[in-house]
Amino acid sequence: MKNLTKNKLFLISLLFPIILLLSMTIKPLATINYGETIRLQTVPVDPSNIFYGDYVDLEFEAENIPINLVEKTLRKKLEDNTYGSYPQDELKVYILLAHNNETNTHQVTSLSLSKPKSGTYIKGSLNPYINDGKVRALIPIEQYYLEDDTGLELEDKARNGELIATIKVRNGYAILRSVE
User: Fold this and answer.
1) Same domain, 77 and 13
2) Which domain holds residue 46?
3) How many domains does the chain have?
4) 45 and 23 part of one domain
5) What is the pTM of this model?
6) Nearest of 38, 48, 17 to residue 151 by alpha carbon
7) Is 132 left (phi over 0), alpha (psi -120 to 50) or beta?
8) Helix or strand run (H / E) with residue 19
9) What are phi and psi of 104, to 5 degrees?
């Protein structure tokens, strides 16, 4: 009887780490398979790293949001400059996006502290300062790794306003798929 219990405990101890590791892939895989594909205009910097090779450090136009697109309660907190005393978890924001047919990219329609009930949105973090009538909401996609000696080509495209990031989004979770 004790051997059966020991065998069960041993089996559970083997399966638990495997189940834990597999569960960590659910959110990214669900986003890739069922998420909406969006395109965002980028403004990159082209650094190089001896360990990782070339990569593009991405900044999105959607991260610099005009103050008039910020929801009223959040705007008031930012304008009153009382936001610096808030806990870090309240700096989580939702960037609501809509497709622009002219540019074939998605652009910001609003910035909110509350999760939208519908529409396409990305969960980000807020820099609680207003600069030149804009606030900065950071999208948690920062780097895109490339083949060696291809980063300069993408940087040139970015300077001409031709660099677009293709992103899969599901329930606010974003995965960078490509930069073109």
Assistant:
1) no
2) 36-179
3) 2
4) no
5) 0.79
6) 48
7) left
8) helix 2-23
9) 55, 35
